[in-house]
Amino acid sequence: DLLLPWLPVQENVILGHRLRGARGAERRRLRERARELLALVGLERQAGAMPATLSGGMRQRVALARTLMEDRPIVLMDEPFSALDAVTRHRLQELAAELLAGRTVLLVTHSPLEALRLGHRIYVLSGRPAVPRGPLLPKGRPPRDIADPVLLAQQAELLGELARSSALLEAC
Q1: CB within 8 Å of 8: residues ≥ 6 apart
Q2: Long-range contacts of 108-115 (CB under 8 A, 24+ apart)
Q3: Could you give the CA distance from residue 152 to residue 109 in angstroms, rounded to a whole number?
Q4: How far apart, in whole angstroms, are the C-alpha atoms of residue 100 and residue 168?
Q5: pLDDT band at 68, cuts 50/70/90?
Q6: How far apart are CA 64 and CA 80, in angstroms?
Q7: What φ, ψ does residue 103 adopt, rounded to 5°?
Q8: Nearest residue to 17 via CA among 8, 4, 30, 36
Q9: Residues 6+ apart with CB under 8 A from 95
Q10: 115: exposed, middle or buried (Cβ count in 10 Å: 0-12, 13-18, 19+)
Q11: Would 142 disulfide with which of 97, 105, 122, 132, CB 3.0-4.6 Å?
């Protein structure tokens, strides 16, 4: 999550803006936006808490809020939902899909269902050195319904491909 342990949660969320020199009225506006994002990820009461007092899942939600705070056209997300319980993961996937719509997002995940639920193009990296295979193009707009039979069939297909890739690596 790369939270700075000496800064409270809210200050970690606005860290990028702070490092770029945000001051005065702008910083007050940014703190308000940070509070809004913390509320969206379910952490409005922890705005003044220090990172060491948070669980791993809470820390990951702060990191997600910080990513969303940046409001950039290109976003890298590396396992952003991995430490979350299933219900929170589902809810925050929907939030990220909504708030990042129209942007280029590179999502790294080990969850085939998460990739299918959120991705427009899915590439599987396999081999040594890793070589991308794909793309797999899920139908519909993210976030896709996890109960969709087509999505579940694609998940089975993707898991099969990952298993074959893993077996090939072990044989080498």
Answers
A1: 47, 48, 49, 50
A2: 108/76, 108/77, 108/78, 108/79, 109/79, 109/81, 109/82, 110/79, 110/82, 111/81, 111/82, 112/155, 112/158, 112/159, 112/162, 113/146, 113/151, 113/155, 114/81, 114/89, 115/158
A3: 17
A4: 36
A5: very high
A6: 7
A7: -110, 165
A8: 30
A9: 40, 41
A10: buried
A11: 97
- Report the range of poorest mean pLDDT among 44-53, 122-131, 160-169: 160-169
Please state, in angstroms and rounded to a whole number, the distance separating the CA atoms of residues 49 and 109.
Answer: 28
pLDDT-wise least confident of 50-54, 96-100, 124-128: 124-128
Place of tokens 């936006």: 33
Q: Rounded CA gap, 13 and 8, in Å?
A: 9
Query: What is the DSSP secondary-structure string of 73-103?
Result: SEEEEESTTTTS-HHHHHHHHHHHHHHTTTS
- Alpha-carbon distance of 78 to 7, in angstroms, equals 22
Q: At residue 102, what are phi and psi to the nearest 5 degrees?
A: 85, 0
Give CA–CA dist 143/151, Å, rounded: 11
Residue 109 corresponds to which tokens in the numbers above?
């995940």
- What are the tokens at 144? 């896709």
Q: Mean pLDDT, to the nearest integer, of 9-35? A: 93
> What's the whole-number mean pLDDT along residues 18-38?
92
Task: Indicate whether 52 pLDDT > 80.
Answer: yes
